[in-house]
Amino acid sequence: MKRALLLIGRLLLAGIFLYAGYAKLREPWANFAGSLFTLKLLPDDALEPIAKTLPWCEVALGVALLSGVWLRWFALIASLMLLLFLSVLTRSYVMGIAADCGCFGSGEVLGPMTLVRDSVMLLLGLAVTIGAFRMSSSGRHYA
Amino acid sequence: MRCLLLLAPVLLLSAQTPASAPVHKKGPPERKPSAMVQNYKETGSPSASIVIEEYADYECPHCAVTYRDLLPQIINEYVKTGKARLLHRDFPLPMHQFARQAAMLADAAGELGFYEVASAQIFKTQAEWSQNGNIEIQLAKVLPPGDMQKVREMVKSNPRLEESISKDVAMGQNVDRIEQTPTLVIVKNGVRQPIAPIPPFPVLKSFIDQTLAKK
């Protein structure tokens, strides 16, 4: 049962990262740079390199999660990334910045539902991470 | 390809117009020759390798900032140098009650050769007329009285203005999938790349330069 849940969680997490990366890559990179700009957090110089590399990192992480190899570590990286995204978005929301989330491509205005959705994704990431570590410590391999 | 086909009427209507920045000049408003009446929304060389289309809503605060701060940089860097043509597209959002009227007035002024003067004034005074809808009062400050009267009459009786705006809106909704204003669409070889939110100019410049470098 636990093994099945871990498998489902891992596939969901992989799907989220693959779709997030794909949604950004199908648009011009300048769109994601524009979304990052609206967060009012990064220096202008950082916008282009991040806009060009982050979507590929998301795709790579999605593929890694899909494969199940080194699941503990990739799930941990995914959870840390989700924690980072949620922190940045929460900061912008609390500051009253009318930001574009850019999470799954441009056009999503940052709002309470964005934060709820990202919190759920973070919980999923943490659950998969904890599950993978427990499974590993109990002598079983990844799901 | 579908983009190229839909854009074809616009391209066919276009003719060479001198590049100009949306800056506010003192003295009498500059009128463009009436022969250019069809393409008053467009500036730049027809042989430019890319077209930068800007979807804007006259009542949108971000559009006013883009008009004031970003477009002059785009014009100086790309339009005046012959690298790009700039095309304005009206995209009045339903939530802005005076945006369509503002677009009609700007377009009417454009048919008389005063498009840039009118656009600049409408954006410049946005904070005032967006409270009460008195756009004509603001426009009358920069247009000669006789032309202002013609603009009023055209808005009332010229269906071409409404059609022009509706065409832009249809283009935005059906082809470019515009979800917000302002949106820039960088067009090269028929490939349309909508950009929104718009990044700061140095980042946008990098993107446009990369697009220009592509064959």
Structure explained in plain terms:
The complex is a heterodimer of chains A (143) and B (215). Chain A is mostly helical. Helix content of chain A is 76%, strand content 0%. Chain A has five helices and no strands. Chain A has helices at 2-25, 29-38, 44-67, 71-94, 112-137. Chain A is globular and about 50 Å long. The relative contact order of chain A is 0.19. Chain B has 215 residues and is of the alpha+beta class. Chain B has helices at 2-13, 61-79, 99-111, 115-124, 126-132, 135-140, 145-157, 159-175, 201-213, and strands spanning 42-43, 50-56, 84-90, 183-188, 191-195. Chain B has a five-stranded mixed beta sheet, with helices on both faces. In chain B, a hairpin with a 2-residue loop joins strand 4 and strand 5. In chain B, helix 3 packs across helix 7 (145-157). The longest helix of chain B is centred in the first third of the chain and has 19 residues, at 61-79. Mean pLDDT of chain B is 86; it is low at 1-26 and 33-37. Chains A and B meet through helix 2 and helix 3 of A and strand 5 and helix 9 of B.
